[in-house]
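Table S4 entry, Prolyl oligopeptidase family serine peptidase.
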Amino acid sequence: MLFRISFLISILAAACPLWGQAPQKSTLTEENFRLWHKLNLTGVSQDGNWLSYVKKYDGLPDTLFINKIKSSLTYNFPEGKSGRFTKGFFSCIMPDSTLKILDLNSNKSFSIRRCISYDLGSEDTRIITVMDSKKLKNIVITDNRGRILDSIYNVTEHVISDNRRYIAFVEKNGLRFSMKYYNLSTAKSQDVFESEKEIVNIIWGKTDRYLAFFSGSKTQPGTVHLIELCSGIHNSYTFKEEDSIKIFMNRKLKISHAGNRVFFDTYSLPLNTAEDQSVEIWHTNDKLIYPVKKAEESYKNYFFSVWHPEKGTFKRYGRAKETAKLSGGENYAVFFKEGLDGQEGNRYHINSIFIESLETGKRNLAVKGIMIERSRLSISPSDDKMVYYYNDAWWCYDMRSEKHISLTASIEGHWDDKIESKTQPDIYAAPVWTADGHSVLLQDKNDLWLVNLDGTSAKRITNGKERNIEFYIDRFWLNRNRVFHPYTSLQDTPVALNENLFLSASGNNKEKGYFILQNGKMPQKLFYGDFDAGQLHHTERGRYFAKVQSFDLPPSICWTDGLDKQMHTAVKSNPQHSSYRWGRSELITYRVPDGRFLKAAVLYPAGYDHSKKYPMIIKIYQSLSYQKHEYMIPSVNEETGFNPVNYTLDGYLVLLPDIGYVYGRTGISAAESVEAAVNKIKQMGIVDERRIGLIGHSFGGYEVNFIMTRSSSFAAGVSGAGVSDLTGRYFSTDNVYKGSQAWRFEGQQWRMRNSFYDAKESYYENSPIFHAETINTPLLIWCGKDDATVPASQSVALYYAMRRLKKNAVLLQYKDEDHNLTRKEAQRDLCLRVKHWFDHYLKGTKPERWIKENM
C-alpha cells in the first residue's frame, strides 16, 4: 500500500552541522534502542526537486521514502525495492510483487501486479516489467501510468540495448526457441533466429546493429552466433565433438566496437589423473602446496577466445589458468595469473604480464615480477596502452611499440602507504584515464596529478598538501553508469577534463566532504566541514545532495544549488535523538616512542561532567580515529559484540586510537601506541585510571592478547577471534585461500616482513602464548566454533594457557558461527556478556553468575 505523509521540514539558513539541539532529557536504555534507524540516500529526481531514501530499523523491514525537498510532501513504501525516478514519476517494487508507479505532479498512483523486476526504455516513456509466470517469464510494456501497451509471453531470457530502444529476447514455443528483438518506439518485434537448442547469453553490441548469443546444450557442442540486424547477415561457429573444446556459456560475450569480432571464453575439461585419492602427497618442492594445487586442478582451463565471423576463423589465446583482459583498442589481450602463492609468504602473486596480439598471435613478456592486485594495473578504455605500478613508481606500456615510459620519475612523492609500515602496501588510488586518452590522473597521499602518457609533463591539479586535505576522485560518482564486464574490469570510466570532477575530501582532523574541480582550477568546496559527508548525488542542472552526520548529530540529507550556495536540510533522521542525553566526540593527538604523532577519537559519555573521572574502554584495530564523526545507532545486535555508543550512553568514555606499527615489532608497537594513548588520556584528567578496559576483534583480538602480556594499565580485557600463537598460525593452512598462512605474517597484517627462520626472536617476542604468564588482567575470550578466518583453536589455546597458569579468564564459543556472529540471538548474547564483563570489572557491579561460576 502507498502511504502519504505530510510534515513540516525546516529549511535551514546555516550549514547542516549547526543545527540547534533540543535539551537532552532522558537517559537512553536498551528498551528504546528500537526507535533508532539508519538513513541511506538512494536517488534524486532529474529536476532535483525530489529525493528517495531508505530507513533501516534494527530487526524490522526497511522502508523506502520519497520526499519533495521544498514542501511538506512525503510518501513511504514499506519494504519497497528498486526505487527509480523518471520524468515526473517514481516507481518501485513492493513486497507483494506489485510495481507501484506514482505521478509526482498529480499525486496519483498506479499498480502492476506480479512484477519480479522492471527496467526503463528510452526517454523513460516505457516501463518494461518482468512478470512472474512459474517457469517462464512474461514481459509487459507499459507507459508511466501503468497502461499496458504490449505483452511478450514465454520468455526465457531478455536484454535491453544500451540506448534502451530495443529488447532482445528468447521466446519458447514447445520444444523450439525463437530469438527476437522488439522496437519500443514502433511496438513491433522482428524474428532473428530459431533453434531446437536453448539460446542463452544474449549481448548487444556497442551500437544497436549487432546481437550475439550462444545456442546449444550441456551435453552437446555449443554454437556462437553474430547477427547484423540491418542486413540480416547471420554468422555462426559450431564446435565439433572431436575438438574437446567447450564454450563457457554462463560468461558474458563481448562484441567488438566494429562488430567484426566476438570475444568469449572456452575451456578444456581437466585431465583425470590416476592419483590414489585415499592419500595426499605433499612435496616440499611443489610450486603450490597440495590443497592449492588440488583446488586449481578442479578448475576448468579457460582460454580467451576470439571468433572472426567474416574470416570464418576462431582462435584461442593465452595459456591455461591465465586471466584475460582486453585492451581498449581491442587489438591486444593482457594475460596474467591471479591467485595465491602458497609457498613464498606472499598473499598476492608476484606475477608477470604478457601481451598477445590478436592480429599476429605474437606473445610478449611486458612486465616481470609485478603485483597485479590492489589496483596496480589499469588498461586504457580507448587505446592499446596500460598503466602499472612497479618499484614504487607508475609506468605506461604501449602495446604497439612495446615501450615502457616512466610517468613519475620527475615527481617527488609517495604513491603507496609503505611509509605507514605495510610490507605489501596499498597504492593510494588506481589511475583514472582522461577521455582524450592522452593522460591519466594519479594519486599521491593528498593530491591528484595530471600526467601525460608520453612522460613529458606532470602537473599537480589539487592543493591538498597545503590545505592538509586528502583529495580523491569520488569513485561512486566516477563509476555510477559503468557496466561491468570481466574483460574490461581493469578499465575505469574515463573523465573529461573540461567537465566537473567530483572529489571526496578528508582533512587532517577528520573533516569530511566533497569538492568540485572545474576546468583545471583548484578544488572548490561543495560539502565540507567538521562532520562526515557521503553518498553524493547530483543533477545535471547543478543541484547537489549528500548525507551529513556527526557523532552527536543524526544523519541528515542536505542539498545545495552549487558552490558558495546556501546548504539546506531536506530530511532529518532519528528525531527522538534530541529527547535523550548523548555524548560528544573529540580528536586528540599523542606521541609514540619512535617520535610519530598519532590520533585517536575520544567519545565522551552522555551528560559528561568535567568534575568527574569516568571508566574507559579502548577499542583497537589498526586505525580507528576516522570514526570520530560516525553517528552510531544504539543496538545489541553487533557482529563482534561491542557498540561504542551503548557504552557512552551508560557512563563510559570510549577511545578509538590509531596504532603506529614497526616492522618485526607488531605486537610491541601496538602495545606502545595504546599505552601512549592511555597516558594522553590520563594527562587530560578525565579517566579513572583504575577502571580502563581493552577490547578488540580479529587482528584487534590478537593485539588485545599481546597487550595483556605487557601492560598493567587495564582492569579488564575482551579478545574476540584473535590469534594467540604466531608460530602455530604461521605453520598452518589458510581455511579460506587453502595456502600457507605465511603470507599473513611476512607480507601482510602481521608486518613481520621476514620468515620465521629469519626472525625467530621477533615471532617469539610478539606471540602472546609465549608470555601468557605475565597476564594479570581478567580476560574474556570469545570465538565462533566454525571460524574459517582465525580457527577457534587459537582462542582455545589461550584459554588453556590461562587455565594452566591459574589466571582469570572465561572462554565463550558460539556454535555454528564464523568469524563474525551472524545470528541475532548470538549477537545479543555476546553484547550482553561483554557488557556484564566490563560493568563488573570497571564499575564494580555484582558479577553475573556465568562470570564467577565454579571459580
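The chain has twelve helices and 53 strands.
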